[in-house]
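Suppose you are handed only two things: the residues of a chain and a line of SMILES describing zinc ion. What would the bound structure be? This form records exactly that question and the answer produced for it, so the two can be stored side by side and reused later without any lookup.

QUESTION INPUTS
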Amino acid sequence: MRTLVGSHAEVSSLMGAGVDPHLYKPSPTDVQRLLDADLVLFHGHHLEGRMGDILHSRNSSGVDPNLHRFIAISERIPRERLIHSSADTVDPHLWMDISLWIEVIRKMKEVLTSIDSDHQIDYEQSLEQLVEELTLLDAQVFDLIAEIPEALRILVTAHDAFGYFGRRYQMEVMGIQGISTESEASIDRVNRLVEILSNRKIPAIFVESTVSERNVRALIEGCASLGHRLRIGGVLFSDAPGPSGSGAERWRDMVLQNARVISEALR
Ligand SMILES: [Zn+2]
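ANSWER OUTPUT
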């Protein structure tokens, strides 16, 4: 967003490095910042579990004249391009597919030009530049995943954040938990995964920065009991960028870093 708006607006984000958006609850200061902003972009599709409640309750109360300023940006992507985890639930992790996130950025630019048409040309130029850079990044991720032998292109992580990544870059993805970090992994699911990982001799699974390692440990121990040595391939960033010094401070670094970690652990 910063790259897109340039110097025409001040951009601040409420959730910093390492914050789990599924569990995020805005502080009173955050709520005040939301109300003071000229524009509030949030992800939508129930990603921001508790903040979504606040935003939706304000929407339905119908008393705030400034509600047009609250925009669930990913809900502007056509539904047929999204992954549906059930009939009425959309998988919210679309930033894992760079080509899809480019569409989200296009929507951001539409919103910006609709409220600040004076700087339309600047926004268009920034968008063009961004699309060019991100298209290259998308190709880089493809190349990294292509280095993994086809039979080993299975990605097991602690929660189902990588569905879009798998669909775009052709990896089979299995989460240990359900779609949200709020649900517990069932023993059946862990046992089933242990079976698949052992049978297919998958060398590594991955932990995530915002999710506990407990379930991942259960898989490693389960595989060991079947004589298969499974290791942790590294830390992936799913729902939040990394802290400074992690090499994954921005969304684009985080996606590239993930692809590197996956590629190196599975090839
Ligand atoms: Zn998530």
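WHAT STANDS OUT: The pocket of zinc ion is lined by residues 22, 93, 159, 161, 238-239 (CB under 6 Å). The mean pLDDT is 88.
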